[in-house]
Amino acid sequence: MHFDWHPVITTWQMIRRNKMRSFLTSLGIIIGISSVIIIISLGAGAQSLLVNEIKSVGSDLIGVLPGASESNGPPASVFGINITTLKYADGQAIKSRVPEIVDFSGYVRGAATVSIEGRKKEASFVGVNANYLNIESTEVVSGRFFTNEEDNSASRVVVLGSEVAEALFNFSDPLDTHVKINKETFDVIGVMKSRGSGGFQNQDNEIYIPLNTGQKIMLGINYISLMRLKVASGADVDSTVEEVKKVLRDQHGITDPEKDDFSVRSQVQTLDTLKTLTDALSYFLAMVAGISLIVGGIGIMNIMLVSITESTREIGLRKAVGARRRDISIQYLIQTVVLSMVGGLLGIFFGVLISWLVSVVANYLGYAWDFVITWQSVVLAVGFTFVVGLLSGWYPAKKAAELNPIDALRYE
Amino acid sequence: MIELINLEKDYTNEELVTPVLRNINLKIAKGEFLAIMGPSGSGKSTLMHILGFLDILSSGKYIFQDKDVSSLDDDTLAIYRNQKVGFVFQSFNLLPKTSVWENVRLPLLYSGGLVDEKKVDQAIASVELTHRSKYLSNQLSGGEKQRVAIARALVNNPDIIFADEPTGNLDSRSGTQIMAILQKLNAEGHTVILVTHETNTAKHAKRIVRIKDGEIVSDEKNDEQIIAAKTELVK
Ligand SMILES: Nc1ncnc2c1ncn2[C@@H]1O[C@H](COP(=O)(O)OP(=O)(O)O)[C@@H](O)[C@H]1O
Ligand SMILES: [Mg+2]
Measured between CA atoms, how close is A8 to chain B, in angstroms? Predict the structure, then answer.
């Protein structure tokens, strides 16, 4: 037995004869496959961005926000509503009563116009406790962070984010200078290490002052807007979350968990929720794009039917010189599968190319965006186009094979 | 080589039966140059299609090379068309935008074996188109197209060459050229069966079978042609 290669020759001849039509036939598949690849890749990229962001904060953290939350939805405080129920004392109570909590910091924040000798920079100030560096696993590159004593005495000391330092001091040494934050004068005691702008907040454009200073001098409040708790390594995060909630209910005199005026979320939980959410979203979108593949398949079938009608005489001739039914049907089946799969390969090529460009641009803009192409999506695309080719070619191929040679030769 | 016994052919379209050929009895020997003549619609092409395994008969018997081929299945008919016969049609039927060489190769693609490229070149040479091998089918004149069609019919070295009104779409000069090629092929030993309604074309054959309304009305030697052949020999 030798390999029967005539359908390959014939397919090549036919595609070469109708280059434009062949391209248009594959276009639906090209677009469909590249959209699926792009959506899955961008979904994975966006997920990596969020996950990197959360991991950079530390996955051993528990966050407490004021205000109740629907079990998984965002707490009210996210929408900018000020809720005054969460206090620094709540943190102290948690730390003393829950052994798994080794450290915590309260947070307040506000808008800051930082200025020095005519230079000005719009930024956010964040009031935190002295152990902030330990909580968020970050460091200062020059100078130092403030101490507990400076926090307790509401000292006017500030640690600048790298972007703020650069904007105001232009690489000259900011240490031991005085800056104005809104109306108050502060001593610059340190500069934070650059953390890159991953995610929603640009931490390099923040400045850090003691929590008490933020509350009493800058904002005139006695509550905090966020608390981060560090869990002892090895401790069970979920049960610790429950302990934290119990202490908070005690503190706030709440007996019914339904009436919680706070929400406690661990980073692990947030990560899981985010992953599930972005996965679901990107698979949904990929499915929508997948529908375009069905449309592409119908397009191929349609054009094949037109081609076959147009080449009725040619089919008659092929039969007259000895083509059997299966020679004709295999020839058209191969042709549709080739058109579909070439479309699929081009679609993969363009999809990967565009996804890659997006990741390059995102990284250039400073986002921690991973370029992810899963081999599953490529295998799936190739397999899918093969099946689409077979399915959309089957009926036209059968019709072509059944043509009677004489009728076909007489066809005008 | 060929024997038809009481052959009948009707076309059935939705209960409507149209008899096309009736009571056809015909013997054709190897090496003959036969013309089937008759007015348009008399059944010439239908007869040729049956002889050439493109169509099947309704009743009667078709003996080909001592074998009853009256009721062959589709695939066997295809093999017979590929191996035993070659067709030349009035409207050339070349593959569009495809080279002369590839057009002539076409039957070999369905022969179930590796294509012997020499056969293609030889067939093209025998119709004197070697210089046009690489031309596309749409770059040829009508006469050249028909010569490509003859080369295609020849490429598998068939026992019989069928030509259905081969000069019908050609000017008289190209037509004469085509007939000369068919005569040459016959002289080389191929059986040629020509279908035509033109006396002028039929005169090249050695034997003329006339049909009318699906029946054979005469079957005689073409004396003119025989005389011409003899004079040719004397020269
Ligand atoms: N598929 C068909 N169905 C019905 N009638 C047909 C069919 N093909 C041919 N005929 C009829 O058969 C007769 C003979 O046709 P044909 O063999 O083509 O004649 P010729 O070649 O002598 O002009 C014509 O009357 C034609 O209309
Ligand atoms: Mg006819």
Answer: 10
